[in-house]
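Priority: medium. Attachment 1 of 2:
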């Protein structure tokens, strides 16, 4: 089975157009497409049958971010819930995208201005530079915050000796007038058991194990908005493009599980759309690798929806901690 590719990363929101304007204005994304879907196979795949959905697709570098707004909810479905206001970085519903930047000061300044105005909520106290004792992460600069609806984001600048070569090429080729934001390196998710997550993402889905290390100390506390933080960070990479990063918070304790009834109508719903080679071969193996499917079998889109979304068949699944993915094929 070949290495899969992340087609897009996305989340649900209450106002996709308004939120898209924030991403374009403040973070350098550009609008790629807006689609309105009424029910059909995609609604079934998402677990929202007979719902009218607005999908706004944004692009940064080579990566796609997809915002999903439930315009009209199907009959009998529970209304969506906002992201819990007391969410913490260690709660198991935590997920974010990591946006690589060429200049942390330039990228963070407008975000910090909005924080000071009370229009955004920070996670980090300020941009942090990870310490020299941590060889795997030394010199990386990072800053975390919430978007206007509460979704978590991270800005990250790699030093010259770290990160994919593509980020350093993009930084070198960037014009002085261009946004300092270059693209999406990964989506990070909180997880409870690193080995179990490796079996799911690597052994089952075919991603490749990347870096694996432990971050702690005052810089990590200030970055995550926690105290006495100790987090094991394990990356899972595709052959190209964005990857998945698992964050196993060993400290502090008290991490809350992802609600079993979380749906795509909830603003805390994120999903990674993963292009795979053999969907039918993966489906029977999900349970043995700690995952589960939301539909009993892969869903086939009609021709119109397939043309809009770029895939023909899909299976909505949960990883061992409940994070959702769309496994799709042409």
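Attachment 2 of 2:
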């Amino acid at each position: 089975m070949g290495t899969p590719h992340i087609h897009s990363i996305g989340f649900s929101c209450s106002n996709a157009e308004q939120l898209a304007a924030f991403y374009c204005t403040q973070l350098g994304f550009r609008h790629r497409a807006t689609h309105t879907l009424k029910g059909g196979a995609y609604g079934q795949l998402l677990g929202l049958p007979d719902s009218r959905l607005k999908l706004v697709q944004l692009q940064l570098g080579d990566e796609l971010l997809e915002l999903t707004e439930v315009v009209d909810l199907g009959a009998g479905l529970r209304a969506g819930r906002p992201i819990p206001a007391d969410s913490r970085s260690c709660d198991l519903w935590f997920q974010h995208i990591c946006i690589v930047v060429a200049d942390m000061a330039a990228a963070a300044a407008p975000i910090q201005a909005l924080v000071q105005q009370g229009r955004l909520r920070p996670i980090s106290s300020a941009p942090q530079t990870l310490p020299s004792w941590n060889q795997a992460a030394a010199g990386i600069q990072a800053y975390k915050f919430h978007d206007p609806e509460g979704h978590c984001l991270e800005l990250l600048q790699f030093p010259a000796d770290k990160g994919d070569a593509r980020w350093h090429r993009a930084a070198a080729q960037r014009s002085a007038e261009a946004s300092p934001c270059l693209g999406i390196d990964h989506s990070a998710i909180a997880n409870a058991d690193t080995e179990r997550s490796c079996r799911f993402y690597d052994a089952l889905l075919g991603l490749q194990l990347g870096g694996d290390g432990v971050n702690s100390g005052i810089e990590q506390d200030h970055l995550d908005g926690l105290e006495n933080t100790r987090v094991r960070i394990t990356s899972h990479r595709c052959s190209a493009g964005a990857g998945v990063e698992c964050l196993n918070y060993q400290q502090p304790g008290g991490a809350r599980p992802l609600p079993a009834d979380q749906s795509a109508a909830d603003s805390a719903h994120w999903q990674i759309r993963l292009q795979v080679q053999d969907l039918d071969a993966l489906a029977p193996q999900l349970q043995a690798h700690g995952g589960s499917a939301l539909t009993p079998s892969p869903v086939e889109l009609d021709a119109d929806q397939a043309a809009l979304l770029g895939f023909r068949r899909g299976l909505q699944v949960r990883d061992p901690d409940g994070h959702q993915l769309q496994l799709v094929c042409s």
